């Protein structure tokens, strides 16, 4: 878990809250940015067909399509062989 630090403003004594990465020098102004950045280190999106890991779900979906010729759902572990099969799954889960 990463800690947050603080950086001072230019003219005001008010301190801006900063969110810092525990793996590298990166810091940002919001928790969402930190979470997204941390994914570059932890790579939480894992291919079910090989050892590939990605920081973003879109990158994993692109990998699965280009390398394994399958369509991957970004909400569950479904893998479709055709666009029609994939679209039927998406319509079913919405």
Plain-language structure description:
The protein is 37% helix and 22% strand. It is an alpha+beta fold and 94 residues long. Strands 1-2-3 form a 3-stranded antiparallel sheet, covered by helices on one side. Strand 2 (15-20) and strand 3 form a beta hairpin.
Short description:
By secondary structure, the protein is α+β, with helices and mostly antiparallel strands. It has helices spanning 31-42, 57-68, 83-93; strands at residues 4-8, 15-20, 27-28, 45-46, 53-54, 71-72, 79-80.
How far apart are the first and last residues' alpha carbons, in Å?
34 Å
Shape: elongated
* Strands in their spatial order, largest beta sheet: 1-2-3
Largest beta-sheet details: 3 strands, antiparallel
> pLDDT average, as an integer?
87
Number of helical segments with 4 or more residues: 3
What attributes characterize this protein structure?
single chain; 94 residues; alpha+beta; three-stranded antiparallel β-sheet; two-stranded antiparallel sheet; 7 strands
List the helices and strands and how they pair.
Elements: E1 4-8, E2 15-20, E3 27-28, H1 31-42, E4 45-46, E5 53-54, H2 57-68, E6 71-72, E7 79-80, H3 83-93
Antiparallel strand pairs: 1-2, 2-3, 4-5, 6-7
